[in-house]
Amino acid sequence: MTDDPDVLANHRRASRVVMDGEVSIRFSSDAIVGSGKNVSAQGVFFLAEGRVPVKVTIEGRDGELDGELVRIENMGSGKVGIAVKFDEQAPDLVG
């Protein structure tokens, strides 16, 4: 396996474009319920059925995009990386 971003990008289903604008998401669901897998004094890990729907707003683009939360990753220094998959393709974002 490689860490080379150019090689990794070739395995993606859609090409990525670098952006530098504000993005916000709004959660569309009230509660996420699932089966607990492990717990400690510091946190809990559980599995939930289905999807976590969100609404996405991207600076410079009118309206919201519907999508689903697919990953949250602790990036350190108080930051998190958040990945959202859109329900429908939005080619205007990359072209």
What attributes does this structure have?
mainly beta, 1 helix, 6 strands, 95 residues
Domain count: 1
Strand content: 35-45%
Strand order of the largest sheet: 1-4-5-6
Q: Report how far apart the termini are.
A: 30 Å
Instruction: Report the mean per-residue pLDDT as an integer.
Output: 87
Structural class of the secondary elements? mainly beta
**N to C succession of SSEs:** HEEEEEE
Structure explained in plain terms:
There is one protein chain. This protein is mainly beta and 95 residues long. The chain has one domain (19-93). The protein is 5% helix and 44% strand. It contains 1 helix and 6 strands, in the order αββββββ. It has one helix spanning 5-9; strands spanning 23-27, 34-39, 44-48, 53-58, 65-76, 79-86. The strands form 2 sheets. It has a 4-stranded antiparallel β-sheet with strand order 1-4-5-6, with no helix packed on it. Strands 2-3 form a two-stranded antiparallel sheet. The longest helix has 5 residues, at 5-9. The protein is globular, with a radius of gyration of 16 Å. The two termini are 30 Å apart. The mean pLDDT is 87.
What are the SSEs and their pairings?
Blueprint: H1 5-9, E1 23-27, E2 34-39, E3 44-48, E4 53-58, E5 65-76, E6 79-86
Antiparallel strand pairs: 1-4, 2-3, 4-5, 5-6
In short:
With 95 residues, the chain is mainly beta. The chain contains 1 helix and 6 strands, in the order αββββββ.
